[in-house]
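Example record used in the benchmark description.
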Amino acid sequence: MNAQPNRMQLNFARLIRSPAFYPFVGLVVVTVFMIFASDKFLTGANLENIARQVSINAIIAVGMTCVILTGGIDLSVGPVMALSGTLTTGLMVAGVPAPIAILIGLLIGVGFGVGNGIFVAYLKMPPIIVTLATMGIARGLG
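Model output (structure tokens):
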């Protein structure tokens, strides 16, 4: 008999030690529970609703991934997103046409991003200080 563990056992042991393993198991457990608990969980309407709710955070996560992969940090993303959304909604409620209100909201976000970029890339300020200040400004305005 061979006392050495086979390749599948080694891969499973490595998988269990992975930091993503237990959150994935939790997701599977919750999904299976919800499938049995509600007959509406796997409907197209519910999956569309989930995708709609997740889409904003997913788009922001892609941008944050780029920032983190380059070794940076951006603390201002949430407050700038909230400010842009609040401003866009307020403009539409005030009667501004939706395309113009959306454009203004996007330009606010771009403006904060360009400002952060100038301070970090050209003025060589630490990203955590710049984005912390931007976070405070965006929270104050929102």
